[in-house]
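Journal club prep — side note

Before the paper discussion, L.F. wants everyone to see what a predicted structure for a comparable chain looks like in token form. Sequence:
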Amino acid sequence: MKGKKIEEVMTDFWQAYVDVLPKEKHTQSKGETFTVEGYNSLFRHFLARMRRRTKCYTKSSKMLEYSVLLLMLKRNGQLNFIIIT
């Protein structure tokens, strides 16, 4: 994210965040993090490459990008597979 300016950071209540983030840009709230945590859980559930660093891991950032894109398209009903028998 070159050139992007971070205005505010939302985290949960883990103490380590308080130690490293500037107080004026940091907000601690479960209400601000539940959506992203839900997506993290979804990715770990459906994409093996997001679960572990051993057997299934991403060697290419482009393949990770494609995997996430395909998952989101399928979950949003924008990707349909045609099975020919």
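L.F.'s comment for the group: The chain is about 40% helix and 5% strand. Keep this in mind when we get to the figures.
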